Amino acid sequence: MDWQRRVAHAFSRAAPRYRELARAQAVMADALLPYLPSSAQHILDVGCGPGDLTKALSRRYPQAFVTGLDLSAAMLAEAQRSTAAPFSEHIQWLCGDAQRLPLGGGSQDLVISNLAIQWCPDMMLALQEIRRVTKAGGKAVINTLAPGTLQEIQQAWSPSPADSSTRTPGVLEFHLRQTHIDAAYAAGWSQVTVNQQRQRFFYPDLKAVMDSVKGVGAQVARQGAHLTRRDVATARARYELLRQPEGLPVSYELLTLVLQA
Q: How far apart are CA 169 and CA 141, in angstroms?
């Protein structure tokens, strides 16, 4: 529960500027669109953040009732604040955990999730819960991340044998594509497809790089961690060695899970 509390706190702090800084997240959400069904009546967006994808789903399926669920109450407040009629009549916002969804079994035709389940301590449990609330014949389309994600950040901040003071910020550990396939079948999904692609984004400097991660809540500091000016200077120098003509790179290994109930 402490982990969930820390994650919720990180995303709540990020809520006011999330849309401004979440360029990569918005681009990766587009990878979900080709796999959406032609129709759906009840739709769940797991890890909805400020609700942009939730509202896009409501526009795509105007007759559907859409639920946006997030661990962060501040994200949901931002989503609700920015949702005007007629969408507000067809969307509900729920504060909840993907590992304990506050919805009835078999209640959803379609479940969508963009870059949320990698935050779950028990990925299998999250996939089981999403399966539980998806009706027979329904579908889930989920974006998550594989190893190699944020590799430049890890390289820049990793401890050096010559300088043990350099500390890496709290970058998550990610699961392999095959691990997701095995977990999805074990969770009860009848058909599982997982597509992997690398997405790269570029930023002008280290601050912009770290804002793209920390500024959208996608970083939870390790307890007791404290970065010094020397740590930052070392990371900046390392990152500059990776600079491309477009800027400083940040890589994501994007997994799109297409799951049939």
A: 30
